[in-house]
Design brief:
about 425 residues; alpha+beta; 18 helices; about 50% helix; binds acetyl coenzyme *A
Length: about 425
């Protein structure tokens, strides 16, 4: 393959040459445009897991995995984590620019005004088993929003696109808290619109009708930070799922429900839950060596959960920020369960010095620490991935809006390398 300034030239097996256009983004590597490859040259590309394939143009989020850079609409996540709030970041992701004071206040108010669920939706929770996983309930109830808001899902209507995003952002915490209350057998707590986004979530999770509930500002601050860090991550598995499901013109709430389901897997958002399960299984610092050896053993399926990332190959910038918050939460909440945190810190140190992890560029990712914070806030392990979904919901909504408004948009439909039998004749059953 030879490179010229704005085309890639490929030589095919028969010696003929094909030229492919190269496209440049604002920052980041160039991409080879292969959209006409099959039409002009009769071949497809092969890239399982899409490790080298761009599926769309996007101006929402940029990641440089080598340098550990993450930017939302051009703003480094470190700056947003330090100075912004989740609601402001949500506005930025959905509307491309940071809001003025008046815009922020209006947006915040709009989200507060959409927190209640249609009362009929609460009946769904009565149908679930008391021990249903909250991610299963989240996915099902978000999908059911299609049945409630079908009169405002015209993708060509800007107002409909807006109200869809507002409902997703505002109602997911209410659904998540209802799922948790079902699990613990407590009455569902209605949202309070005088509280901010994370305070309201804590209230719905932990208040009971029998006594007043005092919101811990450190807990609200920690959740807000986690949601900022989880708000978007360009074409990750769940976001690509939302785009793919939505590309058929499917109801956007169904597309978000598909994203929730994709997030649940342990290789993706389910990792925060898996990290805590793993730390509990390891149990004690004396066992770390044994588990690190298991993670390195090719014949053992065990992996160090919370380590490694498809894109970040030096460090995950979110992990650096969250690690600091972990220390703050542990100190300020004066948690008694610091052994889990101490174990995590020791495991991190052992793995970071180990040749296997160094050679394969395996570093702690955001989920290595997020579960430890959730645990310290009293959030049960089964709710960790739900927390991730709440933060990511705004990214999903922003990507759905971008995808559906793209005039070049097409239904997502990858091709394949077929390895099954070639054509053969049907054999009657008595002759097989
Ligand atoms: N523990 C031990 N070995 C690992 C780990 C790990 N956590 N992660 C990757 N490796 C090894 C693989 O076995 C592979 O080794 P090989 O080259 O000898 O075959 C090599 O490192 C590359 O790993 P891949 O799985 O090919 O890398 P990929 O980019 O496909 O996977 C992933 C990334 C899924 C995140 C992976 O590192 C992993 O499973 N990590 C644990 C789960 C996790 O923490 N997921 C959260 C991701 S962050 C997020 O979604 C918010």
């Amino acid at each position: 393959m030879t490179v010229s300034q704005d085309t890639y030239r490929l030589t095919s097996p028969d010696g003929s040459e094909m030229e492919l256009p190269v496209r440049s983004g604002t920052v980041g590597p160039d991409v080879i445009d292969i959209a006409r490859l099959y039409r002009d040259h009769g071949v497809f590309t092969y890239d399982p897991g899409f490790v080298a394939t761009g599926s769309c143009e996007s101006d929402i989020t940029f990641i440089d995995g080598e340098k550990g850079v993450l930017m939302y609409r051009g703003y480094p996540v470190e700056q947003l984590a330090e100075h912004s709030s989740f609601i402001e970041v949500a506005y930025l992701l959905l509307n491309s620019e940071l809001p003025t004071e008046a815009e922020l206040s209006e947006f915040d108010n709009t989200i507060r005004m959409h927190t209640m669920l249609n009362e009929g939706m609460l009946n769904f929770f009565k149908g679930f088993r008391y021990d249903a996983h909250p991610m299963a309930m989240l996915s099902a109830v978000v999908g059911s929003m299609s049945a409630y808001y079908h009169d405002e899902i015209d993708a060509t209507n800007r107002g409909h696109r807006n109200i869809f995003s507002h409902r997703i952002l505002a109602k997911l915490p209410t659904i998540a808290a209802a799922a948790y209350k079902l699990n613990i057998g407590q009455p569902f707590i209605y949202p309070r619109n005088d509280l901010n986004y994370c305070e309201n979530l804590l209230h719905m999770l932990f208040a009971v009708p029998a006594e007043p509930y005092e919101i811990d500002p450190i807990a609200a601050e920690a959740l807000d930070l986690l949601f900022i860090l989880h708000a978007d991550h360009e074409q990750n598995c769940s976001t690509s799922t939302v785009r793919m499901a939505g590309s058929s013109g499917a109801n956007p709430y169904s597309a978000i429900a598909a994203g929730v389901s994709a997030l649940w897997g342990p290789a993706h958002g389910g990792a925060n839950e898996a990290v805590l399960d793993m730390l509990e299984e390891i149990g004690d610092v004396s066992q770390i060596g044994k588990y690190v050896d298991k993670a390195k053993d090719k014949n053992d399926p065990f992996r160090l959960m919370g380590f490694g990332h498809r894109v970040y190959k030096n460090f995950d910038p979110r992990a650096t920020i969250i690690r600091e918050m972990c220390h703050k939460v542990m100190k300020q909440l004066d948690r008694k369960d610091t052994p889990v945190f101490d174990l995590a810190l020791e495991l991190e140190q052992v793995a970071l010095k180990d040749d296997y992890f160094i050679e394969k560029n395996l570093y702690p990712n955001v989920d290595f620490y997020s579960g430890i914070i959730y645990r310290a806030l009293g959030i049960p392990t089964s709710m960790f991935t739900v927390m991730f979904a709440l933060g990511r919901s705004v990214g999903w909504a922003a990507h759905w809006r971008e995808m559906i408004s793209d005039p070049k948009g097409k239904i997502a439909r990858p091709r394949q390398l077929y390895t099954g039998p070639a054509a053969r004749d049907y054999t009657p059953v008595e002759k097989r």
